[in-house]
C-alpha cells in the first residue's frame, strides 16, 4: 500500500467539499482515457478512490453533511467511490423523467442511477456510511456487494451494530477492484430494481441479520 494515497485522501479530501480532489481525479481519468479514444468501443472503467484506513474517518467526514441535491442531511447517506460526492439513497432525491415527448408516460429515476449516468457510464459504486456496505449499481438496478471494512478480528460490523473500530481490508479492496474492472458481480446475491427502492433500503437496514458468505 502506497503511503502517498492515504495522505492524498487525508489532506485534499479533508480540506473542504472534495471538489479540488474531484477535479484532480477527473483530470487523471481523462489522461488515462486518451489511449482509448482511437478504440471507441473499449470501455475503460474509472479508478476507485482509495477509502481511508479507518472507517471512523470516512464516517465523521460525511455524517450530517448535506446532500447537494436536496440540501438535507440524508437518512441513508452514500458516497460515490469515484468522485466522493455525498448522495441520498432515499426517495427525496429521485427525479421524474418521461418516455415520450407528450410527457404522459413518466417514470422515476433514483439519485444513484442519475449520478452513475453522469459520473461513471451508468455503472456505479458507492459506500453506505451508516452500514459500511458497498453498493453496486447498473442502470436502474442496485445491489449490496459486501464491505471492505473489518474490525481487528477480521469480522464485519454490518450497520455498525457492535460499534467496533473498523479498518480497510486490502484483500477485500482488491476483490472489489477486480469485480469492478471485470464487471463480474458474483459476490452479489440479489439485484433490486430501484423502482422498488424501499425494499432495497430495508434490505440494507437489515443486512446484519442475513450474513451471506
Ligand atoms: Zn460520482
Ligand atoms: Zn439528496
UniProtKB/TrEMBL annotation:
It catalyses: S-ubiquitinyl-[E2 ubiquitin-conjugating enzyme]-L-cysteine + [acceptor protein]-L-lysine = [E2 ubiquitin-conjugating enzyme]-L-cysteine + N(6)-ubiquitinyl-[acceptor protein]-L-lysine. This is E3 ubiquitin-protein ligase. Ubiquitin ligase protein which is a component of the N-end rule pathway. Recognizes and binds to proteins bearing specific N-terminal residues that are destabilizing according to the N-end rule, leading to their ubiquitination and subsequent degradation. GO terms for cellular component: cytoplasm; ubiquitin ligase complex. It is an enzyme of class 2 (transferase). The lineage of its organism: Eukaryota, Metazoa, Ecdysozoa, Nematoda, Chromadorea. It holds the Pfam family PRT6_C. Belongs to the E3 ubiquitin-protein ligase UBR1-like family. InterPro entries: E3_ligase_UBR-like_C, UBR1-like. Residues 35-181 form the E3 ubiquitin-protein ligase UBR-like C-terminal domain. Pathway: Protein modification; protein ubiquitination. Keywords: Metal-binding, Transferase, Ubl conjugation pathway, Zinc, Zinc-finger. PANTHER family: E3 UBIQUITIN-PROTEIN LIGASE UBR3 (PTHR21497:SF39), UBIQUITIN LIGASE E3 ALPHA-RELATED (PTHR21497). One of its GO terms (molecular function) is zinc ion binding. It comes from Caenorhabditis tropicalis. GO terms for biological process: protein ubiquitination; ubiquitin-dependent protein catabolic process via the N-end rule pathway.
